[in-house]
Description:
- This protein has 147 residues and is mainly alpha-helical.
- The protein is built from seven helices and four strands.
Amino acid sequence: MATSTDPDQVLNSLIFDLENIVGERWRWPLDILSIILYKPIWKYLDRFKVATFCFVNGCCLDAIMPYVHHTKQITKHDSLDHFKSLFAVFEEGGSYYTNRYYAFNVTMDRYEYLDGRAVNPLLRAEGTQNTVFVVNFEPEILFFTFF
């Protein structure tokens, strides 16, 4: 954890802490990098993407919160509650979330559902029977699947 008072050093230390858990930053999906590093305020979908990515990569709420507090990317109390509740719901499990949402696991170098199962690459390909609504594009992290 960062102990310096220089804001840039603290930020770099917090990012380094995240990299120690998730994996090297250059391997993170571009949309996650842009949200975490450059987006001043995280909207609903941003919070969902970051929570999904963190959860799949073993980054718990306690590990990401120092970064969130330092950067002030979540400023409203209800938005912060939403972000925290996502982790609680993901940990609780249940097929509604675990079978629908997935993210890129940096360490395993594959897409995984919230419960750790690998995502079948054919489900992500065009022309499959499932209609997949891609929420973000480069690279993909979050999908809603409609049957």
